[in-house]
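Final report, results section. Input specification for complex C-07:
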Amino acid sequence: MNIIDVVLLAMMVITALAVVRMRNLFAAVMLLGIFSLLSASLYALLDAVDVAFTEAAVGAGISTVLMLGTLALTGEREKKPHRPAWLPLVVVVVTGAALLYGTFDMPLYGDPNDPIHKHVADRYIERSGQEVGTPNIVTSVLASYRGFDTLGEVTVIFTAGVGVLALLGRGALSRRRRLNKEDDR
Amino acid sequence: MKRKPVLRVSTKLLTPFILLFALYVQFHGDYGPGGGFQAGVIFASAFILYSLVFGLETAQRVLPAAIRRILLGSGVLIYAGTGIASILMGGNFLNYSVLAHDPLSGQHLGIMLIEFGVGTTVFAAMVIIFFTFAGQYRRGGPDGN
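Structure output:
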């Protein structure tokens, strides 16, 4: 573990703690964007440039804008909690401890005997040049070997767009208002 | 936003380059990091930036509701259509090798087509979600009023 990793991870922890402590939601959204950018740098350090690219574009870019849009509708400050919430704290601590305990069983980063490197990865690396021919193996796995999965992902995004339109789109709102009026009568 | 010249000028300067960069990410995804998903998000972010600075109505005039909805569906159709085309050409669903005279250029063509489909749907979905959320604010809150 080199110094850059340590600094990045420490900054992520600090950002996460700051988000939890923050009552001003506007600042919290900005800090979450910074958190995404830090994790994108971490992915880039792990040589997962495609994932880093997606994280920077979606996590730091689009979701920040969407959360700001939501804040414009709801308000900028979080309400003060009435009393300390002990049960959620216990749940979070237990879950976090279980997850940490789970990581002890994980193979070391970059271990060649890792199960994930024993399965189909060899074939992708050795044969994708002859079978698919794109220099970026990530693209050939995503678009060709796992094309069906990616079709599913695109359908999910399509469904998200259609869902937002159906719930909040122009027609949906006036329809809901009309229904409410009929209920009032 | 009438009185923010720095924002207006820099947005006008940046927008074409963001769009160009998105196209680069889209069509260079075979060779470097990137692909349809990232390109769609970057392309949408140019529109989002434009509407943040110049107002929602201006941005919606550039990209009317009907076109947004057509784009949203057509990306998935392009993707699935490429799969159907490879069935019709005598292969399996989404087996691009049969799309051209030799397998490698077939794969190249197929990947380009489906990445284009991915980019189109992601772009339209991001723009639609943002415009719908932002439109709520202009109407005065989620309950209307």
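Confidence is low (pLDDT under 50) at residues 141-145 of chain B. Residues 17 and 46 of chain B are 9 Å apart (CA to CA). This concludes the modelling results for the funded period.
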